[in-house]
Write a structure and sequence with these properties.
Shape: globular
GO molecular function, one term: monooxygenase activity
Number of helices: 21
CATH architecture: Orthogonal Bundle
Organism: Aerosticca soli
Strand order of the largest sheet: 1-2
Helix content: 55-70%
Oligomer: single chain
Radius of gyration: 24 Å
Keywords: Monooxygenase, Oxidoreductase
InterPro entries: Ferritin-like_SF (IPR009078), Phenol_Hydrox (IPR003430), RNR-like (IPR012348), YHS_dom (IPR007029)
Order of helices and strands: HHHHHHHHHHHHHHHHEEEEHHHHH
Protein name: Phenol hydroxylase, P3 oxygenase component DmpN
CATH superfamily: Ribonucleotide Reductase, subunit A
Distance between the termini: 65 Å
Largest sheet: 2 strands, antiparallel
Structural class: mainly alpha
Number of domains: 1
Amino acid sequence: MTNKRMSLREKYTRLTRDLAWEPSYQPRSRIHPQTAFEGIHIHDWDQWEDPFRLTVDAYWKYQAEKERKLYAIIDAFAQNNGQLNVSDARYINALKIFLTAVTPLEYEAHRGFARIGRQFAGPGPQVACQMQAIDELRHAQTEIHTLSQYNKYFHGFHDWTHMFERVWYLSVPKSWIDDVHSSGPFEFVAAISFSFEYVLTNLLFMPFMSGAAYNGDMATVTFGFSAQSDESRHMTLGLEVIKFMLEQDERNVPVVQRWLDKWFWRSYRLLSLVSMMMDYMLPKRVMSWKEAWEIYFEQNGGALFEDLSRYGIRTPKYAEVAVKEKDHVSHQLWSTFYGVGFATAFHTWIPEPEELDWLSSKYPQTFDRYYRPRWEFWKNYRAEHGRWFSAGLPMLCQVCQIPLVFTEPDDPTRLCHRSSQYEGDRYHFCSDGCKDIFDQEPEKYVQAWLPVHQIFQGHCGGAEISQVLEWYRIVDGVDNKDYADSPDRINWLRWKGRADADAATSDALTPQ
């Protein structure tokens, strides 16, 4: 018998269609009840097809090769004390945010795709969800392994899973993924695979990983490029899923548009944390948040939604607000975190004079007028009175859970504040985008676990700041407050042989 080798298409067909069968004991509506309640109409599941036609053997071979290369770099990084080759210890604080805010999302995405792979009725999306679930789990594991080297030498990496569940500002990513988890399967893929991964993921990975390279962090760079090839595949799948829904039935169009409006705004607000990482936390900067937004959303996203317009899909609602905010969002957020730096698991600081000049050059219309004066005020205040901290934590938006610190889109001198009333109670929002999301599903968002409210209600370890920090497992004076006064800075100066490191104490040398 001739041993005929199967083509890639034949292998993919064997993996998907040939493993599916028509059930005889139960109707499909009882086996996959979750595919109906969201209002999406699917007539032919076989129309959905993975554009990569990825099979299991090809998947394992491809991923194994990437793992070998990644772990060789991680080993070399550790053996050569790569942590000493980064540009400055301030850079490490961006990694602390990444580990506590992004890595848990990778793990939660793994759980979500494993779930909806069971909920979809078609074999094509079932296999794609299974492979993406494995991808997301692998990303979480490799991020943990990559950043573990820093945990040996710097503070703040010690309890990131615990912090993700409890620390006040980490409720921003946690509430986002909880919102995704409580969605149906179609909304789940519209949220993660399309709105986040296709439309916005480049704003997370490309500038941040380029920043890691520019700041000498080759381990994180290698992880980033390893994950980026998966993300590129996820992006393509996300677009295919959206087109699949739109092509199946015209009644799907308004449902999909509503999800794109909602998840664009939710994901944009989540990524605003990246803006301050790019503009303020990288000692050596590749590009500004404004430049990244113009490249990865205005140019790339514009072409995408022009293509989708043939299905009746328009650019997400409030995208024009995000464009107006690109000149302000990073400055407003870093200022806020500087003020509440006593309750963060990373250090904050006043930008150096040359860094202020860089910001002026990147934001010529806004920075010198609205934001440089506050940094100069805080610098003078520190010289005369010591480090300034806010008296308490800020009020949070009921939907995105980011502090209500953003200004009106057309007036940066006035705070943007919206509210809605539901069943006798008033709820507060940072923007029209978040208010719209609440008004569409108020029953969902009235249940939000708002950290600052929980503190006042006595659910976070106690009424004193020290008790709340202990409940968070943030070591006061070590993990938080100003970088200038931190053990991380003292250690860094000692390792670099700087003369002003004489003040280092033995306690500063031992990460928690």
